[in-house]
Amino acid sequence: MGTLLQFIGDWGHALAAVLFAALGIFILRRRDEAPEQRLLAAALLLTSCWSLYVSFGGVDKPLTGIGENIRNAAWLLLLFVMLRQGTAGRAGSLVAIGSVYAAVAGLLLLQTFTDIIWRQLPTASDLHRALIHVSLVLHMMTAIGGLMLVHHLYISWPAQDRGRVALLLGALAAMWTYDLNLYAIATFAMHRANELYALRGPMMALLAPVIGAGLRNDMAGRLQLSRTLALKSLSLAAVALYGVVLVAAAVLLELVAGPYARLVEIGCVFFMAVSALVLLPSRRLRAFWKVQVAKHFFQHRYDYRTEWMRFGDTIGRPGDNAMPLGERVAKAVADITDSPAAILMLRAEDGALAFETQWNWTGELPDGAVVPAPLALLIEQSGWIIDVDRPPSGAGEVVAPGWMSEERRAWALVPLIHFNRLIGAILLARPPIDRRLDWEDFDMLRAAGRQAASYLSEAQGQQALDDAQRFEEFNRRFAFIIHDVKNLVSQLSLLARNAERHADNPDFRADMVLTLQESVGKMNDMLARLSQHNKGRVEEPRPMALDEVTRQVARTRSRQHPISVTGEAPLALADPARVEQILIHLLQNAIDASASGSPVELRLSTDGEDALIAVIDQGRGMTAEFIRRDLFKPFSSSKAGGFGIGAFEARALAQAMGGRIDVESRPGMGSRFTLRLPLARTDIDRGKAA
């Protein structure tokens, strides 16, 4: 064995001796009289003594094999006592497995006897070599027996407590798995086993903290595992196993590859290294590892304390360059199930759930990707979390929308309910390791959804308060404007009267009077409109001709921009003042968005039971995101100094008359704003009769 390997082996075993001794002393200081506690302390201390002897004496000393047998016997006795406790009341099961324990104990005795004999024989004799081979085979059989007994104890342990002993049993399984590989290689190529003998010390040192992770609690069914420590410890064990497999592959290749052994070994090492570099960073592999650890080592899938703290930190600690609240909420819920992406949908005015924002969701959703109002109402009443792969059995005629079932990434729809009111929902993408939702997922997601809904509801309330304050400021500023306009009208009226009395020059008098009277007329018209608007006085919808008001608005704006009116429409049920106000807002926006000389078209038409007025421009257009999030949002304007009230007020006026405003636009391609108003009953009846 080389100097470096000797150094690693000696100090690795010395470190393992210190760690196992510390664990044994820790248990003894607890003064627990339970037999399994005393046996655990004894097994730890005997393992420490064996490691210490190997670190000073080496693997070739006479007592090395005997010490290893004593170590194995102590651990097997602990397993037997734990099995007796775990199978209390099932005597038949204990008797059946007792024969296996007896057989392994017999192997240990035979192995000890063999080790004593072959060390007394001359090294060159055939019997000496044969007994060494027998000893190695017996070591392999002992390791196999230990692995079988560990597996049996694990499956025999009560299912609800199985995760509490998994760490100890996992460490013992790793120890005997390493021994099995060590003696298997030594059986075929003794000289290639030196590396594994040396690395056994560091491997045992790694297993010591794994065993000690839960020793704060009582053993025998009470070994509590830290999920983080379990994942990291098993990851280290996987790395160690990777090294063992690498060495074993090198030995076997040397035995079978002949003169090309070196070349094949290099190729094998290169292949395994590349495989490790590809697999270890894989999100899918990490997710699979996490799922398997949670499934086999713990009673519950989630570490609720850790998940809840992470959930709160994701939403409540935005930082300097944080995502918007909606994205943080989607991410916080998605992180719970390891979903790689999520979509936040919020309740629209018609009761449906519509797209609001996304986290990590790539690609475009299909047109009409909404949760219809009937299903949203059902979710609100029941609180269901919709498993896309398995709809709830009580859904009746209301089922998940087709686009969601066809979207392969869609996995679960989590409702966001606050005080029995559906705020929205989060659509989760499938985790890297696809699985079915179970009761623990439903409980966890339901609680997270309610918490997320409270954050969103608070944010919406704060936004509504901010809007109300800005509306108050808006009204206060216009009250000042009205006051100034009144003063200006009074001044101009006085000036007009004075000019009539004192103008000596007829031409001057005519021009002055004309200019002043025109200004007075304009100011009075503005004052009348503002006063009427502030009073909120409106007429009830009545049959009216849209052609007349449309052409009138077009004439007033045609002096500043080319405007055309096409088509015709029958009588609509509306308020003329509100229709005029809507058209003024929409037409002014179209003029502002259009280049000088680019015409704006007002197109009249009908569609079913609706009368349509379309305002069409060839201006700069808008993005779908701007239309969805900002166009009808008050105080959100793309114009410098604009209040962002026009589109918001136009839609509100249309809805007050039972109509609506549809928007179609693409950047660089212009926009089409369509005012839809219900036809008057006489025109509807006439159309049906025709």
TrEMBL record:
rRNA processing in keyword set: no
Top-rank taxon: Bacteria
InterPro entries: GAF-like_dom_sf, HATPase_C_sf, HATPase_dom, His_kinase_dom, Sig_transdc_His_kin-like_C, XrtA/PrsK
Family matches, as Pfam families: HATPase_c
Keywords attached to this entry: Kinase, Membrane, Phosphoprotein, Transferase, Transmembrane, Transmembrane helix
EC number in record: 2.7.13.3
Keyword Methyltransferase among UniProt keywords: no
Gene Ontology molecular function, alphabetical: phosphorelay sensor kinase activity
Transmembrane segments: 12-28, 40-59, 95-118, 130-154, 166-190, 196-215, 236-257, 263-280
SMART domains: HATPase_c
Boundaries of every Histidine kinase domain copy: 480-681
Reactions accelerated catalytically: ATP + protein L-histidine = ADP + protein N-phospho-L-histidine
Gene3D superfamilies named in the record: 3.30.450.40, Histidine kinase-like ATPase, C-terminal domain
NCBIfam families: PEP_his_kin
Name recorded for this polypeptide: histidine kinase
Organism annotation: Sphingobium chungbukense
Lineage: Bacteria, Pseudomonadati, Pseudomonadota, Alphaproteobacteria, Sphingomonadales
